[in-house]
Design brief:
The chain contains eleven helices and eight strands. It is of the alpha/beta class.
């Protein structure tokens, strides 16, 4: 449970930074562990998402404006917190010409300028297939490029109406082709009505586009307004998924009930670098 001295210190500092963390906005169950280890996931580009995925706790609607000073605040906060690892994600901003790519890139640059030792992972939207925006982010030098597939092909449209399964795969493929030294990562939620065979196929699809790192976690319904959970997977099933993923060639697989995209992200990067170096 959250409450360690490290967690409380980080929470207090974030309260005065005028920044959002997905750790809080998405009700992440690992917030206590990660904050105590000086690892945090920041959510940029506001708190209102232009999409309305049926599993997500983040508010959806029409965002207002764009805060161009946010990257600077983020850089200063990461420096003050002396973070070892920072993950940057965002709401979807389909209303912006570049989908928010510049803010992602400038945030990475600000962190690297102020705290070069801090590794920065990005968890990005699909940019609606505008690959110049993807390259803008990649050219700023993230340690890991993450984009979550989230679920299997058959279930995808029913929970991610504004997304596209094949577009997400293409993004990951182009990322590797553009910057092969930057490991790619993706994540799957289970419990949305998929079959075990479909999980295997999704993992195979991700490996077919050379994704290096994989997270697999249990979907937990944020509220009664969100899509129902189909079932809760047993820990032994998560272990089987992990072993299958490693056999497929992923460099690291984090698979468990409470695993989320940035869970033990530093260890995943170390695993990828051990192979990719």
């Amino acid at each position: 449970m959250p409450g360690s001295p490290g967690f409380l210190d980080l929470r207090q500092k974030l309260r005065t930074a005028e920044l959002s963390t997905v750790c809080e906005e998405a009700h992440c169950p690992n917030i206590g562990e990660c904050w105590d280890r000086k690892s945090a996931t920041f959510m940029i580009l506001g708190e209102v998402c232009t999409r309305a995925c049926r599993y997500c706790a983040v508010t959806s609607g029409k965002p207002l404006g764009l805060d161009l000073e946010e990257p600077g605040r983020l850089g200063r906060t990461v420096e003050q917190l002396e973070l070892r690892y920072a993950v940057i994600t965002s709401v979807d901003r389909d209303d912006l010409p570049d989908g928010g790519a510049w803010v992602f890139a400038e945030s990475i640059r600000q962190i690297h300028q102020r705290l070069p030792a801090c590794e920065v992972e990005v968890l990005i939207p699909d940019f609606q297939g505008h690959w110049d925006d993807l390259r803008t982010v990649l050219d700023s030098g993230p340690a890991v490029l993450n984009h979550n597939i989230e679920t299997v092909r058959r279930v995808f449209k029913s929970v991610r109406a504004k997304g596209d399964y094949d577009l997400s795969l293409e993004l990951l493929k182009i990322s590797t082709q553009t910057h092969p030294k930057i490991p790619t990562k993706s994540g799957i939620m289970v419990g949305l009505g998929e079959t075990r065979e479909e999980i295997s196929q999704t993992m195979a699809d991700l490996r077919a586009v050379d994704v290096d790192l994989l997270t697999v976690g249990q979907y937990l319904r944020p509220s009664k307004a969100h899509v129902e959970m189909d079932r809760f997977y047993h820990p032994s099933e998560f272990k089987e998924i992990e072993e299958e993923g490693l056999a497929l060639g992923f460099k690291y697989v984090a698979s468990g009930p409470l695993v989320r995209s940035s869970y033990h992200a530093e260890e995943q990067l170390d695993a990828a670098r051990g192979v990719l170096a």
